[in-house]
Amino acid sequence: MNTLIIYAHPNPNSFNYAILQTTVQKLQQKQHEIRIRDLYEMNFNPVLKEDYFTKQNPAVSKAIQEEQMHFSWAKQLIFIYPTWWNGMPAILKGYIEKIFTNGFAFTFTDEGAKGLLQNKRAIIFQTTSHPENYLKPYQLIASMETIVDVGILNFCGIETITHKFFYSVPYVDENTKKAMLKEVEDIVEMI
């Protein structure tokens, strides 16, 4: 199966990187075709400027077309990123804004928006420094899930299989981190 991983963490010693490695190893065992878009390694520029896509300016740059080809190729999407300011890192948000253009990821009809990235499934692995009992009473987890799973992915026609949060990552012990990575393996095993 063609699987595209979108990875957004700048530190190669991070737990997010351990999630990436675990995911890749499991996908290789399952004989998936894998492509990784490591946004920091790519030095991806998330700022919309001259490549801003509008109906009046429908052309997208070759760099954006190349990224869109990766999404067209993939049947499975895996996003791996930390929680910063109760959301995804700006580099990932900018990546989505630039790549998921009108006419590629969605279109508007008389009946509203229609997702164009049908028949694709996504898994999200999201880490956070906060404990679960801090985030849930304020509905922050539900808010982040709604924004990503519904407001971005479902809007574009992508089905979210799982949106897995790993809590208090900088503060948990090694055994807890090993258990988290086992959860990553178990989730990837399902696809």
UniProtKB/TrEMBL annotation:
The keyword Transport does not apply. Residues 1-186 form the Flavodoxin-like fold domain. Signal peptide: none annotated. Keywords: Oxidoreductase. Pfam families: Flavodoxin_2. One of its GO terms (molecular function) is oxidoreductase activity. Its EC number is 1.-.-.-, 1.6.99.-. The keyword Oxidoreductase applies. It is an enzyme of class 1 (oxidoreductase). Belongs to the NAD(P)H dehydrogenase (quinone) family. This is NAD(P)H-dependent oxidoreductase. The lineage of its organism: Bacteria, Bacillati, Bacillota, Bacilli, Bacillales.
